[in-house]
Write a structure and sequence with these properties.
Elements: E1 2-7, E2 13-18, H1 34-40, E3 41-43, E4 49-53, H2 56-64
The chain binds zinc ion.
Protein name: DUF2757 family protein
InterPro entries: Fin
């Protein structure tokens, strides 16, 4: 089992962590509400976890343009 991080805005793949390397605590899951976790995490049929997060450039873009938060996806 592994955890895959993708940018939820531009789809960039941001890395993969095998769960033998990281416990949930290290990933910051314990600071997320249960609802946040359920929205961000998707488990595929193979049991791998996919995390929808923001990459740095999208994070900056949304910080500068808060209304972009309302869009599901855009192209850089
Ligand atoms: Zn992005």
């Amino acid at each position: 089992m592994a955890i895959y991080y993708h940018c939820r805005q531009c789809g960039t793949e941001m890395g993969t962590i095998s769960t033998s390397e990281a416990k949930q605590r290290d990933l910051g899951f314990d600071v997320l509400s249960r609802q946040d976790q359920e929205e961000m995490m998707h488990v595929d049929q193979a049991g791998h976890v996919h995390m929808d997060i923001l990459c740095e450039s999208c994070h900056e873009a949304t910080a500068l343009n808060p209304e972009l938060h309302e869009q599901q996806r855009w192209v850089h």
